[in-house]
Backbone:
């Protein structure tokens, strides 16, 4: 079976990652990649898992069912979309910040979608008082789209009231 993507969501508490990955390891599944975050008291994790040829999605969900029940988690398993990312594409880091208002994430991501840029990582948060909204994204650029073009698209229109920075991913710390 091709790799699976698991999403795990629930109220935060210590031991969630250990319990989920322990059940996967005991079943012979291999965690190939993962991301986890705490979002306002809710824990969220996405895991790419390699499983045996004869292992079904139902098998993986059955292995995780006791963990999900005991920890109050929602677990969903789906086939992975397309394998490991292509490392030969140009990436950039997009930062957007400014006074908070509804729609910032939509406005930024809609502008990127219009130029077929692919968001592969995104984080946002409110900081300070009054709240300042911060949005950070790693973006894969389609062939022919430059960082200057991304800066122009994001720095105009509905985002013109915000600070927007676009840097090559190779320059990130």
Residues:
């Amino acid at each position: 079976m091709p790799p699976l993507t698991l999403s795990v969501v629930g109220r935060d508490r210590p031991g969630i990652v250990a319990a989920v990955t322990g059940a996967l390891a005991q079943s012979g599944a291999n965690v190939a990649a993962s991301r986890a975050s705490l979002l306002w008291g809710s824990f969220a994790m996405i895991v790419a898992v390699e499983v045996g040829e004869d292992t079904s999605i139902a098998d993986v969900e059955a292995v995780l069912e006791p963990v999900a029940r005991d920890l109050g988690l929602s677990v969903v398993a789906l086939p992975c979309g397309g394998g490991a990312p292509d490392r030969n594409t140009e990436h950039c880091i997009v930062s957007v910040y400014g006074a908070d208002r509804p729609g910032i994430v939509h406005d930024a991501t809609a502008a990127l979608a219009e130029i077929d840029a692919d968001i592969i990582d995104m984080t946002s948060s409110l900081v300070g008082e009054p709240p300042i909204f911060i949005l950070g994204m790693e973006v894969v650029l389609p062939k022919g789209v430059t960082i200057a073009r991304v800066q122009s698209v994001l720095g105009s229109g509905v985002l013109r009231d915000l600070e927007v920075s676009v840097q090559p991913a190779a320059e990130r710390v």
About this structure: The helical segments are 16-26, 57-71, 104-114, 147-155. The chain has a mean pLDDT of 90. The chain has two domains: 4-79, 91-171. The longest helix spans residues 57-71.
